[in-house]
Amino acid sequence: MVVHLATNASLLNSVETFQRAVYAIHSFGMALPLIEWGFIFLPLLFHGFVGVWIAVNGRSNTSNYPYINNRRYTWQRWTGLIALVFLLVHVFHLHGWFHFHVWLDLVAHPLGMANFKPYNAASTLARAMGSWPWRIFYLIGVLACVYHLANGLWTAGITWGLWISAAAQERATKICTVFGVLLAFVGVAAWWGAIVTDPVKAETIENRMYPAAVEAGAVPLSVEKRTQPDPTVEAPADPDDAAEELEKPEDPEEPKTP
């Protein structure tokens, strides 16, 4: 989550900075789905299922013992549930959950989901965040995730025996609080960057960057990862032909006869 929020916050620097960061992620090519599922989606789903089980079976006693640590336990459960719903909707909203054409054409796109195109990262993100209901939803979701992570590190440290004494827990509280505040700042910066970006200007910049990135081998050619119709190239069926099309110079004008 730290890397994801920092990458999105780079949009405040420039569209070019953000697009280059997204290109770096997608330069893994066919290995990217394995990385995403192995290190992001499956661990998150496992954590989500375990968290729901704990939230359902746990017992809050804040009414009898209204101490701050007891309240933090309750807030951890609630922010976990909010974060789980947020992440499921977030992935559906931007990526559609699955990339099968039948699923996208019959389910995701008719519902207004799967809006993000990695090779038009800033413009499609800005359009997806174009209405205030989505903006409010994302702000609440990001802040819930930040609290759940920062406070979760504190509770995990106790579970793992890293800070047991009262003094150690107090030091850990300060460290996790500073971490949470800094990450919240980065998260709000990422949220704000998506709101203030002009999608039309961003798309113009992305269309200029894409042919150069493909020609340099920075990213593989992909029609699905671009906003369609693609004004930079009429993508042929063969990727080699597409690369040649990108390199093809314009026909010189024939000299006019007097």
TrEMBL record:
<keyword id="KW-0472">Membrane</keyword>
<feature type="transmembrane region" description="Helical">
    <location>
        <begin position="37"/>
        <end position="57"/>
    </location>
</feature>
<keyword id="KW-1133">Transmembrane helix</keyword>
<feature type="transmembrane region" description="Helical">
    <location>
        <begin position="136"/>
        <end position="163"/>
    </location>
</feature>
<dbReference type="InterPro" id="IPR016002">
    <property type="entry name" value="Succ_DH_cyt_b558_Firmicute"/>
</dbReference>
<feature type="region of interest" description="Disordered">
    <location>
        <begin position="221"/>
        <end position="258"/>
    </location>
</feature>
<dbReference type="GO" id="GO:0016020">
    <property type="term" value="C:membrane"/>
</dbReference>
<feature type="transmembrane region" description="Helical">
    <location>
        <begin position="175"/>
        <end position="194"/>
    </location>
</feature>
<dbReference type="InterPro" id="IPR034804">
    <property type="entry name" value="SQR/QFR_C/D"/>
</dbReference>
<protein>
    <submittedName>
        <fullName>Succinate dehydrogenase cytochrome b558 subunit</fullName>
    </submittedName>
</protein>
<feature type="transmembrane region" description="Helical">
    <location>
        <begin position="78"/>
        <end position="98"/>
    </location>
</feature>
<keyword id="KW-0812">Transmembrane</keyword>
<feature type="compositionally biased region" description="Acidic residues">
    <location>
        <begin position="237"/>
        <end position="258"/>
    </location>
</feature>
